[in-house]
Amino acid sequence: MADERHRPVIVDDLHGVELYATEVSGFTLAHGNVTLTLSSLRASWDDEGIPNKRVVVGRIVLPTTSAQVLALELYDFLKSRGLDPAPRPEGTQVQ
Questions:
Q1: In what helix (H) or strand (E) does residue 79 lie, and over which residues does it extend?
Q2: Cβ distance 39 to 25 under 8 Å?
Q3: Is residue 91 one of the residues assigned to a domain?
Q4: Which of residues 8 and 49 earns the better pLDDT score?
């Protein structure tokens, strides 16, 4: 992570957009940017008979270096809260 002494202060915007997504449904890499596509499970009331759909609710685009920092910091955050960032599927425990 960059030296904290040289980073600009964060200004908390109380009117900033807050987004809820149930999953990250995809990633793309283009022109040095990583795009995370966010989606949310929504009830569907159409005639297709599909009870739920995954609806794209937003996208986050980050320069590759920022995406790398995000990945590492999210890993460390989850680990520090007692959540295994890379859980093993059931039955694959290493002896």
A1: helix 64-80
A2: yes
A3: no
A4: 8
Q: Domain span at residue 23?
A: 19-80
CB neighbour burial string for 9-24, b if at least 16 within 10 angstroms, e if fewer = eeeeeeeeeeeebeee
Q: Tell me which of 12 and 91 has the higher pLDDT.
A: 12
Give the C-alpha distances (Å, rounded to integers) separating 18 from 45, 75, 82: 26, 22, 26
Query: How far is Cα 36 from Cα 51, in angstroms, rounded to an integer?
Result: 25
pLDDT at 90 over 50: yes
CA distance 2 to 83: 25
What's the domain count of the chain? 1
